[in-house]
Amino acid sequence: YPLVARQAAPHVVRISDVEFGSDEFVVIAGPCAVEGQDQIENAARVVQSLGARVLRGGAFKPRTSPYSFQGLGLEGIELLRRASLKAELPFITEVMSVDQVWELEPRVDAFQIGTRNMHNFELLKAIGETQKPVMLKRGFGATLREWVLAAEYIAKGGNHNIILCERGIRSFDPETRFTLDLAGAIWAKQETKLPVIIDPSHGTGLPELIDPLARAAAAAGLDGIMVEIHDDPDQALSDGDQALTSRQFKTLMSNLAPIVEAVGRRM
Ligand code: PEP
Ligand code: MN
Prior knowledge:
The protein is of the alpha/beta class. The chain has one domain (13-260): Aldolase class I (TIM Barrel). It is built from nine helices and ten strands. The strands form two sheets. An eight-stranded parallel β-barrel has the order 3-4-5-6-7-8-9-10, surrounded by five helices. A two-stranded antiparallel ribbon has the order 1-2. Helix 1 (37-49) links the parallel strand 3 (26-30) and strand 4 (54-56). Helix 8 packs parallel to helix 9 (246-262). The model has no long low-confidence stretch (mean pLDDT 97). The structure holds phosphoenolpyruvate and manganese (II) ion (MN). The site of phosphoenolpyruvate has 10 residues, from loops. Residues 32, 58, 62, 114-116, 137, 167, 199, 202 line the site of phosphoenolpyruvate.
């Protein structure tokens, strides 16, 4: 891995003024999907007031079923942009195609590459041609080597602003939605110079496992987490089963704080 392998200093990636891979442990939070103006603005307010640093929300959604809600598209990006300005938080959102890269580049603070697109090499190359920070999720069937080589594709184009995100791999066990590979995330942190975060929401699909895994990530020296929240999970248009309510998210943030402090970092 000539470009992303560990060098003397770890690489710090900035989304606006938020640093990944420095002494910050960064919490990214927001709904799975942008559903409307009130929903995303309320979520942004919660995210900001509880001390998370980056807003997330999907406008282009890679749904398993073509009959499920596919996201609000460009309108969703506009709603995200407004919510993010109001709450004074940068935002990240998923990009699914090469065309969307050029369309969204001037409109978003950071790109997310989802698990289903980790192997989309044309998409990786297009993002490599920008300087936009990008969070690269591990494919749920990808080896660690394939994940790091996907990052290498982006870096080879000249964009080194890459954050790796472990979001769970598919295993034989049906009790959790996916199997969050914490060991794999720690391996990636040790083997590359890139910041590494985990997504325990998709990684487990179970709200009650998100908080302990967030603390495990901080204790292990990883660089942050991304979690999904919703003010009314039963009514959510996607991933409601794994969404944290504001109250649960507040508990997570207060449980996380002492661990982050214990490892000499800040939130
Ligand atoms: C998401 O973050 O909402 C998402 C679709 O994630 P993943 O690509 O990990 O499934
Ligand atoms: Mn989701």
